[in-house]
Recover the amino acids of this structure.
């Protein structure tokens, strides 16, 4: 049994998430408040004890740990030659955008979606083209007619898929992934599948790797994976790019090497191997704990903050909360809640125009901290409504 209830103090530790005032409670960026698995800590301590931190290679054991994990957990066989180390999924995405597209071309996304996708596209002089997800009856689905129309545009050359989807927490099903893949291939659009959240799913659920669905998907895709979300290792900068197609793989390889994001630091490989070889039990218990937190949040909001609605979620430790009954602008709402209560959550506008009446809340924290956050949320909403009445 692992202890996920420990309240580790992260203030004044150089944490991006916890760079806040002492009376504030951050529940925004996708960074868990749980200490890393003891098995990973042990591997890092062993690496530190060596006391030499020169340049590093990526050993066979690294690739083998990923192969075994995906074969066992996700029923997908990955060949060693398909894999390339990268310093993170975001550096990988930005490098892929630069290498696989040209300035002025369209990169298609499905809004509301991870806000950094926009940065990777716009900062490199490409255009964001969104196949907006359709929100109806409290859930989301894909508008396939719109998707096909936008993939068919001559200037659309790349699609970034979020699988599972952040922030809505949706696990895409096999039929959906196949349909996306078939349409992309029909119009010669390469699919980059960001699968960083794949191991944080409800205990009774499984995600499906995009490339595993069909030969078409396999040969027309680039997949980004990492242990960083599931095992809370973002600061160690480690990820893997999987590209079965030899031609695409050569281009991606040249891109990440040109951008100098293809070499590991002295801890990235050791942590990744330990996570995939020894972290399974820890992760299984974590998934149960997170699911409990998600259920607690949904029940609390339904009972005490009924003007809000939590979109049902099967993946990630993030909750996407509909605030449209009380506001049309979550940027203002989030700022108000933080000023009034110290609770720091993300406004939905960051994830696209169609997210502007939502907030995103990270519930990957000890239950005591979650309860504090929920009480602050309740207080903030009550005061916001009262202010508007006045």
């Amino acid at each position: 049994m692992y202890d996920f209830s420990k309240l580790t103090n992260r203030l004044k530790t150089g944490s991006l998430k916890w760079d806040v005032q002492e009376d504030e409670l951050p529940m925004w960026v996708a960074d868990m408040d749980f200490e890393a698995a003891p098995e990973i800590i042990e591997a890092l301590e062993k690496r530190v004890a060596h006391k030499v931190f020169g340049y590093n290679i990526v050993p066979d054991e690294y690739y083998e740990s990923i192969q075994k994990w995906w074969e066992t957990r996700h029923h997908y066989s990955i060949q060693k030659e398909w894999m390339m180390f990268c310093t993170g999924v975001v550096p990988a995405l930005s490098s892929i955008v630069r290498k696989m597209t040209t300035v002025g071309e369209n990169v298609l996304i499905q809004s509301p979606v991870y806000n950094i996708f926009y940065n990777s596209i716009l900062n490199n002089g490409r255009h964001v083209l969104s196949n907006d997800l359709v929100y109806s009856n409290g859930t989301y689905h894909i508008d396939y007619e719109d998707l096909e129309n936008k993939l068919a545009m001559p200037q659309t050359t790349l699609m970034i898929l979020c699988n599972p989807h952040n922030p809505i927490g949706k696990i895409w099903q096999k039929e959906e992934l196949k349909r996306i893949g078939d349409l992309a291939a029909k119009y010669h659009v390469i699919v980059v599948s960001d699968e960083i959240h794949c191991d944080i799913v409800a205990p009774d659920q499984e995600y499906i790797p995009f490339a595993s669905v069909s030969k078409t998907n396999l040969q027309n895709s680039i997949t980004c994976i990492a242990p960083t979300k599931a095992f809370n290792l973002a600061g160690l900068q480690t990820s893997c790019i999987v590209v079965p197609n030899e031609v695409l793989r050569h281009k991606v390889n040249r891109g990440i090497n040109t951008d100098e994001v293809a070499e590991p630091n002295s801890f990235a490989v050791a942590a990744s191997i330990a996570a995939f070889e020894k972290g399974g039990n820890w992760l299984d218990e974590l998934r149960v704990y997170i699911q409990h937190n998600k259920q607690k949040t949904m029940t609390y909001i339904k009972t005490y903050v009924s003007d809000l609605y939590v979109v049902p979620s099967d993946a990630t430790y993030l909750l996407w909360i509909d605030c449209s009954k009380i506001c049309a602008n979550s940027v203002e709402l989030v700022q108000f809640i933080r000023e009034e209560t110290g609770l720091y959550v993300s406004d939905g506008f960051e994830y696209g125009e169609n997210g502007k009446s939502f907030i995103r809340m990270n519930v990957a924290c000890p239950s005591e901290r979650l309860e504090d956050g929920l009480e602050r949320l309740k207080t903030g909403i009550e005061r916001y409504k009262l202010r508007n009445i006045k």
